Amino acid sequence: MSALIQSQANETFVLNLGPQHPATHGVLRVKLTMDGEYIVEAEPVLGYIHRMHEKMGENRTWAQFLPNTGRMDYLHALAFNHGYVALVERAAGITVPERAEYLRVITTELNRVSSHLLWFGAFILDLGGFSPLLYAFDDREHILDLLESVTGSRLTYCYFRFGGVYNDIDDNFVPGARAFIKRLRERMPMYHNLVTKNIILMKRLQEVGPISAEMCRKYGATGPVCRGSGINFDVRKHEPYSIYPEMDFEVPVYEQGDSMARYMVRMDEIEQSLRIVEQALDKLPEGPVMAEKVPKILKPPKGDYYHAVETARGSFGVRAVSDGGNIPYRLKLRSPTFSNLSLFGEACRGMLLPDALALMGSLDLVIPEIDR
Amino acid sequence: MSDYLKEIISGTWSLFVGLGITIRYFFQPVVTVQYPHQTLPMTPRFRGHTELVPDPESGGPLCIVCGMCEKACPSNCITVRGEKREGVKGKVLTEYTLDFTRCSLCGLCVESCPVTPTKAITFSRDYNLAGVSKEAYIFDLKKRLEAENR
């Protein structure tokens, strides 16, 4: 009793969120200093799933690092594949056949849709709604089947190779992809009726967890997080690579900066990705899927190279320094979620704990990609 | 005040709309596969663990023991050994071990195989892998091929 009387009004306590917590979607630990239900300070603690991918890259040949790229962001593995492959092609001066570029864009965008669908399901699950997850997984399953029939695996694809893609698509892929686009377009209004217009979701997300454009710039946030804060930045538009300049698509930008804005950006991006896939399927040229003269033992000339791609979570950049050998001298991976998570500490100050979890879900964290 | 009432009414309505959707899906056919009882066919390109391709005539392995797959593997999980035998051109395969505990199923070994026209290693369709010991996953692919031939 006396302890209660002696306690000061501004007493705080430390709450550990994670490293094993369903809301952190992996082994992320957040040290929260709480004042009752309110967060005074939040400090993400990283390193629980650090696998030193950069160092692994410096210990194996250029081609041997390929499977690693898919293991960083397992939800959008193909974009990570694309970033690394495009970097090495830039370094070694390999020209990729047009059909291969189209296949890369088609599969990457389908993968982006599957990533957003999984995020959608898991995010609503964080907020306490279970059924949308099952509906989203039903749609996602169609994408996984499509990609499995082309790449041979369902999650950690390793489909791109220096100079092209691993193998050509089969006859069922194009009709299958078209049927999927039609199906998802028919299902999107259902998602909006079931989830987006739901009053509980609106109350949980609107004006919750505001992130200003300035904060995004300060922490280097990219992807849907910065686009939800009114910054129009998309690597596909602003530093175009592959065949994206030929595609007609919009970059959804919302000004509000709250969790709802980030939610809407991703939902709109699903539609934009479907548009890209549709156009690419229409224009898909015939021809080889692999460049002819790719040396078996690749030795890019001496130099410092960088290539960035837009993944489902933001801009992924690879920087490689080559000393002319068959092993990279230095490999630096810039992953989007690392920057997106860094702003969490500042953004959630003064928020209620459940609101902070909504904010964390809207950042779309993939922990293996943060730790690499 | 009127906005407040409007929000209550439209908000309540949105909940019923959502319930209507879930009830409609409740009566629609099941989309999941009852796995142990039902299985789906594997796609022809499924990347399982590797296995040796037999020579259609002799039934022995096509492998020429060049060691390209061993070198291409990022996880060093392949061991290939061969020996010279009298009267046979090239080397004869004596051992092909795949340490599946370390394999990441990337397929670089199959790609690197120089044997033409059919590659000497291919992906198996085996996806029902389960075991209780680590040793069960250190596959002796040559023995597997011989067991298949028997």
What does this structure look like?
- The complex is a heterodimer of chains A (372) and B (150).
- By secondary structure, chain A is an alpha+beta fold.
- Helices cover 48% and strands 13% of the residues of chain A.
- Chain A is built from 16 helices and eight strands.
- In chain A, β7 and β8 form a beta hairpin.
- In chain A, α5 runs antiparallel to α6 and α7 runs antiparallel to α12.
- The model of chain A has no long low-confidence stretch (mean pLDDT 87).
- With 150 residues, chain B is of the alpha+beta class.
- Chain B folds into two domains: 31 residues; 100 residues, Alpha-Beta Plaits, CATH 3.30.70.
- In chain B, a hairpin with a 6-residue loop joins β2 and β3.
- At the A-B interface, α3, α6 and α7 of A face α1 and α3 of B.
From the structure provided, what is the oligomeric state, counting identical versus distinct chains? heterodimer
Global morphology of chain B: elongated
CATH architecture descriptor text of chain A: Orthogonal Bundle
Number of domains of chain B: 2
Instruction: Tell me the total number of β-strands of chain B.
Output: 5
* Highest-level CATH class of the largest domain in chain B: Alpha Beta
Give the SSE layout:
The complex is a heterodimer of chains A (372) and B (150).
Chain A: H1 2-6, E1 13-17, E2 29-35, E3 38-45, H2 53-57, H3 66-72, H4 77-92, H5 98-126, H6 131-151, E4 160-161, E5 164-165, H7 173-196, H8 199-205, H9 213-219, H10 224-227, H11 235-238, H12 259-283, E6 303-311, E7 314-322, E8 330-334, H13 336-342, H14 344-347, H15 353-362, H16 367-371
Antiparallel strand pairs in A: 1-2, 2-3, 4-5, 6-7, 7-8
Chain B: H1 2-26, E1 50-52, H2 68-72, E2 78-84, E3 91-99, H3 108-112, E4 121-123, E5 138-140, H4 141-149
Antiparallel strand pairs in B: 1-4, 2-3, 3-5
